[in-house]
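Quick one: structure for this chain?
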Amino acid sequence: METEVSETTSGNRSSARGWFGNRLTRHGTPVIAWITFFCVAGSLSLILLQNEQIRIGGWALFGGLWLFCLNFFRNPCRVAPEGDQPISPADGKVIGVDVVDDENYVDGQAVRIHIFLSVFNVHVNRIPVDGEIEHLRYIPGEFRNAVGAEAREVNERQEIGLRSTSGVPILVRQIAGLIARRIVCPLEVGESVKRGFDFGMIRFGSQTEIIIPARDGVAFKSAVKVGDKVHGGKTVLGDWVE
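Got it. Here's what it folds into:
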């Protein structure tokens, strides 16, 4: 269930500080700059080689690395759908939908949705609902394969708890993976955030999960299932229905 309307998903603080009007996320600026310098320097050094095949192969290698970097840090311009239903905090594939009793922030029974991000997915994370940041907790850990169920329990992760404008506490977790060794989350407690705002990312290949409890005694019903592909800031994850 995906709908496009007029509200931009980058209408919050510092959203336009990325390269090319934030088409490349600001969260990747240091890495993009370093990779660009490395590829340019490496390509120039190949000019000194007399073997043409090695030169061409080297240029192809550096060019491929640079293009992969740009593709990984891309930040598509998206608009949030109408309504107040939670939208996906990440691009990727749904690898789990279950009901849990969360005691970290939600404090009660809630629906948990797991999203796996491969290195080919957009890795920008987005805010699922309008609200205010109430809880931030960084948990050091291991760097196991993000596809595995154990990753959410033992890997390095960042918790973001926000209370929606309707009073619902929602928890988002950024979970590092085997290759992903860097979680970016510059949010601050007390900060007001807009639905769809690109608040951070995980480098490179990872998992994001969202935990959504009942609202006014009405349970949340997921509209996505295992195997579905979702888009951050765009795919509606479900609704509170009787």
